[in-house]
Amino acid sequence: MWDCLLVSGSIVGVAAVGDRLLEIVKDPPWERALCDSCTHGLVALLSWLALILRTGRCQGGGWPYVPWLEVLLCGILGSAIDIDHFIAARSFDLKLALHLNHRPPLHSTGLCCLLAAFPFLLSWIFRCDWLFRFGWLWWVAFSSHHLRDGTRRGLWLLPNWSTPPLPRPLYLAALAALPHITWSVMKLTQTGFNRQEGFLPLRLEYII
Ligand SMILES: [Zn+2]
Predict the structure, then answer these.
(1) Residue 24's Cα: distance from chain center in Å?
(2) Could you tell me the distance, in angstroms and rounded to a whole number, from the CA of residue 192 to the centre of ligand 1?
(3) Minimal CB count within 10 Å: which of 88, 124, 160, 201?
(4) Torsional class of 198: left (φ above 0), alpha (ψ -120 to 50), beta (otherwise)
(5) Cα(204) to centroid(ligand 1), Å
């Protein structure tokens, strides 16, 4: 259990350090964007790692089995959500991407929940547990990203409605709680929970 708590503490630590860096690094814009992306990625990666460490198969003596590619994928997705800034700007120009007059689509929590519903629906129809797991991974990736962005502009839940900006203590508590709440729901519903090897067909130890 200690390893799980350590990872949860790391999520809050990484988010707090990342936010502080954004207050310090104002220029050049690419450095600021890189710093923000890395923080998003690390927070998502650690969130999925914390969730995995909560599972019974990963507890007990010795170093637990961790599907590292799955953990890495969560980090990549958590960071890659900001690509929609460039898509909305229809340009690779960072200044244009950062100064949109509207929020890009993947920053809509409502839309991302709808996207998560697809793998859930397909896995329910085809009884495919790895798709359930992918749906939960996507949930953790985009939720951690939206919670971080939510301190600036709130959570965009419906097309014309967003919450007020999230207070800092609430956002940090929500980030720390996210993997544990998700794990509890996965366990309760037995969805994507018992897949020992993770949903990816490859295991890192087969590659390196
Ligand atoms: Zn963002």
Answers:
(1) 24
(2) 27
(3) 160
(4) left
(5) 29
Q: Residue 46's pLDDT is what?
A: 95
User: For residue 35, how far is its CA from the centre of ligand 1 (angstroms)?
Assistant: 12
The pLDDT of residue 66 is: 76
Summarised one tens digit per residue, pLDDT across range 112-126 is 999 999 988 998 888
The verdict on residue 126 lying in a domain is yes
Domain range for 51 is 2-202
Question: What are the CA-CA distances from residue 31 to residues 44, 99, 145, 166, 170 (Å)?
Answer: 20, 16, 19, 25, 27
Distance 194 CA to ligand 1 centre (A): 31
> Is 207 a member of any domain?
no
Q: How many domains does the chain have?
A: 1
Ligand 1 mean position to 120 CA, how many Å?
24
Q: How confident is the model at residue 200 (pLDDT cuts 50, 70, 90)?
A: low
